[in-house]
Amino acid sequence: MTTTIFERRRDHYIVSSEPSLLDPNAINAAFGSKAMYWCTSLPSTTLQTMLKNSYCLGLYLDVAKLHPVGLATQPKPEQIGLARIITDFVTFAYLTDVYVTPEEQGKGLGNWLIECIGEVLDGMGDLRGAWLIASEGKGDEYYRKKLGMTPLEQGKNGICMMRRLGPTGFGYNEDDTPSH
Fold first, then answer.
1. Which DSSP category does 135 fall into?
2. Angstrom distance (rounded) from CA 60 to CA 159
3. How far, in whole angstroms, is CA 140 from its chain's centroid?
4. Is residue 54 within 8 Å of residue 95, measured between CB atoms?
């Protein structure tokens, strides 16, 4: 597992892979919101395990920069977004759970977070492939432009992407309605 902490700062915002900055309560609140239609909140221990076993880039509002106080009482940055990568840090990366809270959207922060993901992926010199699931149309075009992702053509070159949904997985019922 990589030990190098990724960190970028812009104005009063931070993108960081520092695990101690992650706010499980804020992440779970986002997971349970309507804005993140593809997932639901998780039991605390499940969420902790998920975060511990992933490479997470948190997006934070640097509260201390907005409201300076003495060094001894610096407040922890407020979590306002996340991008989670499931990876072996060498050959494989799967990007998931990317969000910016609705209150902070429209400020270019999502684009910046994705640019940071691009830096992380570019740093994996032996990367065989990076994967993600995106909505057709706007979503796939965005990731194509920002990260150089391309849709996987089923059956091309003998490749077939497959899945198995778990009991909490986002999918569709037989009548094509979302399962949650």
1. -
2. 38
3. 16
4. no
Q: How long a stretch of residues is the chain?
A: 180
CA distance 81 to 99: 5
Using CA atoms, how far apart are residues 109 and 9, in angstroms rounded to an integer? 11
Q: Say how far apart CA 89 and CA 120 lie, in whole Å.
A: 9
Q: Which are the contacts of 134, defined by CB distance < 8 A and separation ≥ 6?
A: 140, 142, 143, 149
Q: Which of 58, 74, 82, 63 is nearest to 12 (CA)?
A: 63
Q: Compute CA 142 distance to the chain's CA centroid, rounded to the nearest angstrom.
A: 15
Whole-angstrom distance, CA of residue 134 vs CA of residue 7: 26
What are the residues facing 81 on neighbouring strands? 59, 100
The pTM assigned to this predicted structure is 0.85
Q: What is the DSSP letter of 55?
A: E
Tens-digit pLDDT profile for residues 22-52: 999 999 999 999 988 888 999 999 999 999 9
CA 33 to chain centre: 15
